[in-house]
């Protein structure tokens, strides 16, 4: 049982008896097996979450790059329109 306490879930109790101690050994082995399955499932779930986080980070970087590429030309266009607006206001106030 020390092996199991130290994390070795491959260890089993080898006690072939038909009494209460034998049933206890079978129960312990069953619990160890269930822990082993749960550990594997937890590790797989963790790997899946890490992969999902990596994909989300990649998508975030891509979205950020796209936003930057769109924002720069729009800022230039916006600046040019504001300049034209000022020119138009100046021209209309001078002509009146």
Your description of this structure?
It is a single chain. This protein is mainly alpha-helical and 96 residues long. 83% of the residues lie in helices and 0% in strands. The protein has helices at 2-5, 20-95. The radius of gyration is 35 Å and the shape is rod-shaped. 0% of the residues are buried.
Strand composition percent:
under 5%
Uncertain ranges: none
* Biggest sheet record: none
Helix content: over 70%
Helical run tally: 2
- How many runs of DSSP E, i.e. beta strands? 0
Rg estimate, integer Å: 35 Å
Shape, per Cα inertia axes:
rod-shaped
Oligomer: single chain
pLDDT averaged over residues? 92
Class by helix and strand content? Answer: mainly alpha
Helix-strand topology string = HH
The separation of the N and C termini measures 98 Å
Give a short summary of the structure.
With 96 residues, the protein is an all-alpha fold.
Please specify the SSE layout and strand pairing.
Elements: H1 2-5, H2 20-95
What brief labels describe this structure?
single chain; 96 residues; mainly alpha; 2 helices; 83% helix
């Amino acid at each position: 049982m020390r092996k199991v306490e130290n994390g070795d879930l491959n260890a089993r109790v080898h006690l072939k008896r038909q009494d209460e101690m034998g049933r206890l050994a079978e129960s312990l082995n069953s619990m160890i097996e269930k822990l082993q399955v749960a550990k594997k499932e937890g590790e797989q779930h963790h790997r899946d979450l890490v992969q999902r986080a990596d994909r989300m980070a990649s998508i975030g970087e891509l979205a950020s790059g796209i936003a930057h590429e769109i924002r720069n030309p729009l800022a230039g266009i916006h600046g040019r329109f504001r300049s034209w607006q000022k020119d138009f206001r100046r021209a209309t106030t001078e002509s009146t």
